[in-house]
UniProtKB/TrEMBL annotation:
It comes from the Bacteria. The lineage of its organism: Bacteria, Bacillati, Actinomycetota, Actinomycetes, Pseudonocardiales. This is Dihydrofolate reductase family protein. It comes from Prauserella halophila. InterPro entries: DHFR-like_dom_sf (IPR024072), RibDG_C (IPR002734). Residues 130-172 form the Bacterial bifunctional deaminase-reductase C-terminal domain. Transmembrane segments: none annotated.
Length: 193
């Protein structure tokens, strides 16, 4: 089984979006470089960010998202975000009516089922969990191996927390990756067991 990683862009004060689910300037660094990050060339980052992010994105075999993010994005038009092979959606509801059953999405009830399904689909590749409420629940359940953050130099003041509503203390190891990009700091921590 591959590792399970909680990941997202985060503000310096720990938010992944404002209270209205808007990232504001958190994603500005995705457009301030000269190296295309995605196949369509919509995202352009610094060479340093490209080397770090692209290699991580290439190792992801499945991603886990909450139903709220799925609905908010319109299910990414049926295309798994970031070109990942499989997307697992944590939800208590079935797939939307008329949903294309051939789309690479799997709807499961509960975080344990989501991690198990994602690990099966990913095989030896990484399972990526979007930070926020679902990511925080998976961390609290002790199922996260690594935390990755792309810290943008932004203070949002309030909004959707990176770790969701996690209330208990969780220890991380010292960062084993600290990379400065253009208007972003890439950090990687292993979860202490």
């Amino acid at each position: 089984m591959g590792k399970v990683v909680m990941y997202n862009v985060v503000s310096v004060d720990g938010f992944v979006a404002d209270e209205n689910d808007r990232p504001g300037p958190l994603f500005d660094w995705y457009f301030n470089g000269d190296v295309p990050l995605d196949e369509g060339g919509e995202l352009t980052v610094s060479r340093t960010s490209h080397e770090y992010i692209r290699s991580y994105w290439d190792e992801i075999g499945a991603s886990i998202f909450g139903r709220h993010v799925f609905d908010m994005t319109g299910g990414w038009g049926g295309e798994s975000p970031g070109g990942v092979d499989h997307a697992v959606v944590v939800t208590h509801r079935p797939a939307p009516e008329g949903w294309d059953r051939e789309a690479p999405f799997h709807f499961v009830d509960g975080i344990e089922a989501a991690v198990t399904t994602a690990q099966h689909l990913a095989g030896d590749r990484t399972v990526n969990i979007a930070a926020g409420d679902v990511g925080g629940q998976v961390l609290a359940a002790g199922l996260v191996d690594e935390v990755r953050m792309d810290v943008a130099p932004v203070v949002l003041g309030s909004g959707k927390r990176y770790f969701g509503s996690v209330e208990a203390q969780h220890l991380l190891e010292d960062p084993d990756v600290v990379i400065q990009g253009n208007r972003v700091l890439h950090l990687r921590y292993r979860v202490r067991r």
